[in-house]
Amino acid sequence: MIIHLIRHAEAIDRSQDIPEEHRFLTPRGIKRFRKVARSLKKLGLEPDVILTSPMIRAVQTADILSETLRHKGDLLVVSQLAARFGPEQLDELLNSYPQAREIALIGHEPDLGALTQNMLEAQASCALSKGGVASFKRSAGGEALFIQLVTGGGRIFTSRSKALERLQRETTK
User: Distance from the CA of 139 to the CA of which of 14, 104, 109, 146 falls in 20 to 30 A?
Assistant: First the structure.
């Protein structure tokens, strides 16, 4: 199964006036993620299922992805992607969609960075940039083969080592 881990695009800053779950994408975040989604389309992404966190910013990111890819499959909100999403939750979620050949998961940091680190078997911490995508081919035994990293600015890395360098640099921002 091919798995795309997607961090939501840039959202408005945290504020006491707006609850965390209601934070929405900025105009810049929308524009930049449309560029990322177009890159993903050119790369041939065709997820059978798109799963998103219930947070508004993640749902908006999923909508942009779905629209750009002209996705015909399911786009579902799943509470597991809201927080504390790790390898065990990934296995549970993937087991719920055994028919899927390709799946996109839209969520948040630090969960997706930690999951990416786990799938890369990296020693140092990783973080996805806002709107960034890490793609893996996962075997039935759970081994993950790195496919590509698309940054929130639309840059594509197919080299595992260069992607890892970029992912680890994001943790210092």
Answer: 109
